[in-house]
Amino acid sequence: MTKFKLLQLSEGISNVIRDAGFTVPSEIQEKTIPLVLAGKDVIGSSATGSGKTLAFGAGIIDKMNRGFGVQTLILTPTRELAEQVAKTLQKFSNYKGLRIQEIYGGVSMGPQIHGLRNADIVVGTPGRILDHLERRTFRLNHIKYLVLDEADRMLDMGFIRDVEKIIRQCPNERQTLLFSATISQEIGHIAKRYMKNPVHVSVNDQIDPSQLYQKYYDVPQELKFSLLVYLLKLEKKGVVMVFCNTRRNVDRVTRGLYQYGIDALAIHGGLSQNRRTNTLQAFHSRETLILVCTDVAARGLDIKDVSHIYNFDLPNTGNDYIHRIGRTARAGKNGIAISFVSSGEHSEFRNICREKSLNIENIIVPKSIDVLSVTIGAPSRGRMGGRKGGGKQNRGHHRGNNNFRANDRNKGRFDRRGGMREGRSRRR
Length: 428
Description:
Layout: H1 11-19, H2 27-37, E1 42-45, H3 52-63, E2 72-75, H4 79-93, E3 100-103, H5 109-116, E4 121-124, H6 126-135, E5 145-148, H7 151-156, H8 160-168, E6 175-180, H9 185-194, E7 199-202, E8 212-218, H10 224-234, E9 240-243, H11 247-259, E10 265-267, H12 273-284, E11 290-293, E12 308-311, H13 318-325, E13 335-341, H14 346-355, E14 361-363, H15 368-372, H16 406-409, H17 414-417
Parallel strand pairs: 1-6, 1-7, 2-4, 2-5, 3-4, 5-6, 8-13, 8-14, 9-11, 9-12, 10-11, 12-13
Helix pairs in contact: 2-3, 3-4, 6-8
């Protein structure tokens, strides 16, 4: 008898979970699954990688039967997270024949409309869900289970009104499960207004502090990219995530790395859905070991075995910092988190350290960086959209110290410009 069976799950789903290689539930699963089976509303606070999809999914799947219309709606902040959640739920619900439909923008509505006709579970982003509701291609009158996944991220991205519109169209007699890395005042408002005596569940951070080495470089703005190239070329192995605050910086850093012989891929909300999907597939298959991204990749996405986190741009808040570094130092493995701090950012960095009680070591920028003199030239071609190699004019002959000045101007606005927000005007 497995430990999952002890959580009051039926033999059917317990066997599926066991066959998938899971025997001992994570903390969030152990605390949440019995509550879901008991019909309780739940507010779960847990970090990425804690296993919350199975925490809410196992109980819901166990209680569902096929062919009664869409009984479960799961809202996620991004298309990638919707795909990830749907894939996980499909794996554990195949034995019941449940049909799961993903609903998000950036793709044609036709196949989604067709899939909704026979779906039992819908996983989607708020904007495209509202599109279907307004077109009456989707109705919520049979919803028994409503899940708000990464709720704080949805609110940060400006989805609070969309989320509330969707909740109000769901039947009053339903079970609501809300999962969020942080419980803000707005999260409390939603819980008070739309949930019934919710049970609060929180779990310890999954990061192992003893396995995580945090350091920062006090580096001039014009040398940040040079330092990044220098450090990446020192690493012969490892899975790396480089965080920027804006889409523009993600593209510029990725182009620059490619120019200097470092294979990296970019992911942000300005890319097409196909390209974003292909990027994540390449990263998961380890065709590329360096992912340059906005903060959306720090939340929800299941990216395993990350060895290095680079904060090329400082995060806006202490919570954002924790979400970023939370990608590494898991499951007993070592991890390194490296931050670049430039002129004008020291006060902000001290506030982050003070807020989260962080003790981050200051490392001196190597003198050889000045000799390396790497800059980001004009946009090269090849993988990023033009002639491969970029030509002689792109090989360090342009001044690089103005390339990232937009960074400071865009500080604090990355949810709108750097995250994967699906604005109503973009969804179609």
